[in-house]
């Protein structure tokens, strides 16, 4: 199967990005180097192509009721122009996908879903929609082929983002300038004659924005951001840095910390599951887990001695013969040590606990730490 | 980015270089390989005294993103390893043909060095 390319493919080639396969897409893993890009986002600003991610618009008078019955978080908390992190779960409480849901108008929602899950999510949503009594009053509009997106992340982004999205917003949260958006708020601006949705969200642990734009506009948006971003030392960044940045702050990556056999509660994301909003797909199974306690939990850990970096799939050993598996692992560019996330039996999943990670036949000491692993000074 | 390919070395297809002095071969990875890896964060070296065969995996180099095996291009016994590179893995990036060397092998089959790639052949392989 040939790999899919984003509207920014030519831009990545021009900028010397090293391209790899990710979730069926041909994406840049790095430009100048993962460590350099990572540290640039921590201290200045980085620009990421996230056009591989999927978009689904859900609209109509019953859109909120429909979505609240398939998503774990409580959508009723959102006023127009707000977004929330949430999950699509199956009946067993396993995770079909983790996503952001934005309420962009009174009866219109925008879901930002994972690249590798676009087909699964759309099929799942269609099946749920088919079974929804009010389906005539809800329209699903999968729009991944018509939209691209970029993330602009880092403490200095606020210095230049207003040049790209000048003035007041035209939809979503009403703000007089883009930097007035608060965390998880979203609003629309005109760019190249097209409507672009800009959310104050990200996947790096830094302040920043994500902009969703029609595909034909994305390259001009990318170029414009790079042109004005020199004020804030903006650098293009690849998926390598995106992965190390999110691992340091313990954000889950679908396929690693989450999958159809893993619940948001096991992943430590129970704060994003609402049990008091009424029924939703997976609620019964998740409630059972909440009452009984989960059997295994996702922990963050840090290597305590000299070792190679931990990698996904490596075995974890805790006291009393408990074993687990590393879900994500890397060398932390910010901390200079090996870090990771992994699943252990709940009894062993306690911050401060000493564990060992098996690397090529040897066992190396690590410590379970509180999330996030990296905190801004 | 054009990579250096020194003329006084021989090369393996798997991107190691060999510098032979009398009957001892020093082994490292090429400038091209370190560019591809970027940001080397860990190097695991063989034990001194280990016997290695040409083409055998006997060291590991890890970047932020991946772990890669390093193959001995020659057959013989490991007689020295570069402790400096395991202390400071970034030497692989900054001096791949110098202080970033990996290990030394006492050759037991010296003629096999002639079977390794010449600088011209390696340049052709990497398109340099």
Annotated CATH homologous superfamily of chain B? RNA polymerase II/Efflux pump adaptor protein, barrel-sandwich hybrid domain
Quaternary organisation of the protein chains: heterodimer
Calculate the terminal CA-CA distance of chain A, rounded to whole Å: 45 Å
Secondary-structure content class of chain B: alpha+beta
Task: Summarize the entry for a quick read.
With 377 residues, chain A is an alpha+beta fold. Helices cover 19% and strands 33% of the residues of chain A.
Structure description:
- The complex is a heterodimer of chains A (377) and B (128).
- Chain A is an alpha+beta fold.
- Chain A has a seven-stranded mixed β-sheet with strand order 10-11-12-13-9-3-14, sandwiched between helices. Chain A has a six-stranded antiparallel beta barrel with strand order 15-18-17-16-19-20.
- Chain A has helices at residues 9-14, 34-43, 63-68, 118-130, 161-164, 215-228, 239-248, 283-292, and strands at residues 18-22, 25-30, 45-49, 54-59, 82-89, 95-105, 108-113, 139-142, 147-153, 171-172, 186-191, 194-199, 208-214, 234-237, 296-303, 315-317, 323-331, 338-345, 354-359, 362-369.
- In chain A, a hairpin with a 2-residue loop joins strand 6 and strand 7 (108-113).
- The mean pLDDT of chain A is 97.
- Chain A is globular and about 60 Å long.
- Helix content of chain A is 19%, strand content 33%.
- Chain A folds into three domains: 9-53 and 146-247, Gyrase A, domain 2; 54-142, Alpha-Beta Plaits (2-Layer Sandwich), CATH 3.30.70; 295-377, Elongation Factor Tu (Ef-tu), domain 3 (Beta Barrel), CATH 2.40.30.110.
- Chain B is an alpha+beta fold.
- Chain B has one domain (10-110): OB fold (Dihydrolipoamide Acetyltransferase, E2P).
- Chain B has helices at 31-37, 83-87, 91-94, 119-126; strands at residues 10-11, 16-21, 24-29, 40-44, 51-52, 56-63, 67-72, 76-81, 103-107.
- Chain B is globular.
- Chain B starts with 9 loop residues before the first strand and ends with a helix.
- Chain A binds chain B through residues 16, 29-30, 33-36, 240, 243-244, 307-309, 311, 330-331, 333, 360, and chain B through 1, 38-39, 41-42, 44, 60, 62-65, 67.
């Amino acid at each position: 199967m040939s790999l899919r390319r984003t509207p920014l493919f030519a831009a990545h080639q021009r900028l010397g990005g090293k391209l790899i396969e990710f979730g069926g897409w041909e994406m840049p893993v790095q430009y100048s180097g993962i460590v350099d890009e990572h540290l640039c986002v921590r201290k200045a600003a980085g620009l990421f192509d996230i056009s591989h991610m999927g978009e689904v618009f859900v609209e109509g008078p019953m859109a909120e009721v429909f979505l609240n019955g398939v998503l774990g978080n409580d959508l009723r908390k959102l006023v127009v122009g707000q977004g929330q992190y949430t999950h699509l779960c199956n009946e067993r409480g396993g995770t079909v996908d983790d996503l952001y849901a934005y309420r962009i108008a009174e009866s219109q929602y925008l879901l930002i879903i994972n690249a590798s899950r676009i087909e699964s999510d759309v099929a799942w949503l269609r099946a749920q929609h088919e079974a929804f009594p009010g389906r005539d009053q809800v329209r699903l509009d999968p729009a991944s082929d018509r939209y691209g997106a970029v993330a602009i992340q880092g403490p200095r982004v606020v210095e230049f983002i207003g040049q790209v999205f000048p003035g007041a917003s035209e939809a979503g949260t009403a703000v007089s300038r883009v930097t007035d958006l608060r965390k998880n708020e979203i609003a629309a601006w005109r760019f190249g004659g097209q409507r672009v949705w800009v959310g104050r969200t990200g996947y790096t642990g830094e302040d920043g924005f994500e902009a969703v734009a029609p595909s034909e506009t994305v390259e001009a948006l990318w170029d414009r951001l790079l042109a004005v971003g020199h004020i804030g030392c903006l650098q293009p960044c690849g998926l390598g840095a995106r992965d190390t940045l999110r691992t340091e702050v313990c954000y889950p990556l679908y396929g690693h910390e989450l999958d159809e056999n893993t619940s948001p509660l096991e992943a430590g994301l129970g704060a994003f599951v609402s049990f008091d909003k009424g029924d939703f797909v997976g609620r019964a199974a998740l409630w059972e887990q909440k009452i009984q306690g989960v059997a295994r939990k996702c922990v963050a850990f840090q290597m305590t001695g000299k070792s190679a970096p931990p990698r996904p799939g490596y075995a974890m050993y805790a006291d009393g013969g408990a074993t687990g598996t590393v879900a994500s692992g890397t060398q932390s560019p910010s901390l200079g040590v090996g870090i990771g996330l992994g699943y252990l039996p709940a009894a062993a999943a306690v911050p401060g606990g000493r564990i060992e990670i098996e690397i090529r036949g040897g066992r190396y000491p690590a410590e379970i730490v509180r999330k996030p692993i990296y905190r801004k000074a | 980015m054009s990579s250096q390919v020194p003329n006084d070395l021989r090369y393996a297809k798997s991107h190691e270089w060999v510098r032979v002095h009398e009957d001892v071969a020093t082994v490292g990875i090429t400038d091209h390989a370190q560019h591809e890896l970027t940001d080397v964060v860990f190097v695991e070296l063989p034990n001194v005294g280990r016997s290695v065969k040409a083409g055998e995996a006997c060291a590991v180099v890890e970047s932020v993103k991946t772990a890669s095996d390093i193959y001995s291009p020659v057959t013989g016994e490991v007689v020295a390893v570069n402790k400096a590179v395991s202390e400071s893995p970034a030497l692989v990036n900054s001096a791949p043909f110098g202080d970033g060397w990996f290990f030394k092998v006492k050759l037991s089959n010296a003629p096999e060095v002639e079977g390794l790639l010449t600088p011209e052949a390696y340049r052709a392989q990497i398109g340099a």
